[in-house]
Design brief:
Helix content: 55-70%
Number of helices: 8
Strand content: 5-15%
Oligomer: single chain
Distance between the termini: 30 Å
Strand order of the largest sheet: 1-3-2
Largest sheet: 3 strands, mixed
Number of strands: 3
Amino acid sequence: VLPLSNCAYLQPLLQDFNLILTEEEQTLSGHLAAEIRKEMPILEESRETQKVKTIGERLESALPAHDFNYEFFLVQDESPNAFTIPGGKIYVHSGLLQFTDDPGLAGVIAHEIGHAYERHPAKSLSRAYGVDALSQAIFRGKQGGMRGMALRLAQGGFLTTYSREDEREAD
């Protein structure tokens, strides 16, 4: 699986591979958001939360199309980071606010909106699902060591992360 996934010919084809419909992505988003709430404290009512939401909503209003109801959250996490899940839910770590001003925060949120708009999280999940299905076909559903190793190697590679092209599109 890994040699095929790194083939220069297949990479452009796999990059836009998406099995998840927009409606399914919104449903999945709700399930993932519930899991995130269990794992990461969401800061509901604070000045910083309002700032994240205001900047996010202002940026969202400039989008040419709206496949999702974008939502913006501030989570209690000291690392300077932000992430997007399928369905347009965008999470900003509280630690990021210590390292950036409003224009910098707007740049980060705009980047995350770009990932959601281009449906990068759903495409990444689709690639991971495709690798799992392919590995089951190749290894005939055996849970043996070779199948597991091939699956971990492939999923640890570009299949579950954003490519440079995804990052360029998000910018």
